[in-house]
Amino acid sequence: MRHLLSTRDLPREDAIRLLDIAEDMADVQDREVKKLPTLRGKTVVNLFFEDSTRTRISFEAAAKRLSADVINFSAKGSSVSKGESLKDTAQTLQAMGADAVVIRHGSSGAPQTLATSGWIDAGIVNAGDGTHEHPTQALLDAFTMRRRLHGTASRGKDLDGVSVAIVGDIVHSRVARSNVWLLRTLGAHVTLVAPPTLLPVDVSGWPATVGYDLDAAIAAGPDVVMMLRIQAERMNAAFFPNTREYSRRWGLDEERLGRLRADSIVMHPGPMNRGLEISAAAADSPRSTVREQVANGVSVRMAALYLLLSGANTEQVRPGGVR
């Protein structure tokens, strides 16, 4: 794997392979010594033009557990704030010998530009670009679903027939886009649920059905309900009357949680607006996977960096067979 930019064109075999390697990485995290020597001598740069906590720390932990050297770059306080272009920043990282660049950028397509421009030879991982995609978030979500549904026998499994309702601010969500494409590839059925104003103008090309009623979606008995954060920082207009109305019609509260199937799970990519798109009772319930998603993110990002930088021999990451 040369780059990881999108889930839209990620082949099913590659997606399952990455999830299987993430299982190996998760097994390593249960050992007393959690580090692998796999990427010793490699340099991973976290190039973040947007604020982030979970994704940046997760990638940093993943790289360090693979013994890579990590450079954290923030646009604030750097030459970017003085007007330096993406090209000049990339060429600076090239001169420093970066082997992989994990980039989060406010402009959709920035990772693709970095990967195809010739400015830098490093492998590129998209950590979120504008409202376009966030592939490793979708992969960790699929990994979490697979583990909850298949348990310890999840290796090699897809999500064939699993029903997933993605609820909330679809129009601004790169997480929703990456999940729609990846879940389709893995065989799941996706329903998008949101007020019309929070859906893209045209979703006819998306492999998902569309609904506007959260109660109807819950009555259909989904295996997974994924709540999305209301991204107020991306809104320059009134997309719904007020927060109370949104919570009443599209929020997952305790009453709606009780109407879910007993084996349904609740997901959220974080950070959560408690009391808006999800109640504290739903966020903290036993069926919530929010904390699992954070932990699983490290394993999935270890797998992504491993595939990007070290080759295809997965035997070297299996517990008991680590070199």
TrEMBL record:
Gene: pyrB
Gene Ontology molecular functions: amino acid binding; aspartate carbamoyltransferase activity
One Gene Ontology cellular component annotation held by this UniProt entry: cytosol
InterPro entries the record matches: Asp/Orn_carbamoyltranf_P-bd, Asp/Orn_carbamoylTrfase, Asp/Orn_carbamoylTrfase_sf, Asp_carbamoyltransf, Asp_carbamoyltransf_Asp/Orn-bd
UniProt keyword annotations, A-Z: Pyrimidine biosynthesis, Transferase
Physiological role: Catalyzes the condensation of carbamoyl phosphate and aspartate to form carbamoyl aspartate and inorganic phosphate, the committed step in the de novo pyrimidine nucleotide biosynthesis pathway.
Native organism: Leifsonia soli
Catalytic activity as recorded in UniProt: carbamoyl phosphate + L-aspartate = N-carbamoyl-L-aspartate + phosphate + H(+)
Chain ranges of the Aspartate/ornithine carbamoyltransferase Asp/Orn-binding domain: 160-308
UniProt: L-aspartate binding residues: K82, R174, R229
Name of this protein: Aspartate carbamoyltransferase
Coiled coil: none
Keyword tRNA-binding attributed: no
Complex and partners: Heterododecamer (2C3:3R2) of six catalytic PyrB chains organized as two trimers (C3), and six regulatory PyrI chains organized as three dimers (R2).
Example of a GO biological process term: amino acid metabolic process
Signal peptide feature range: none
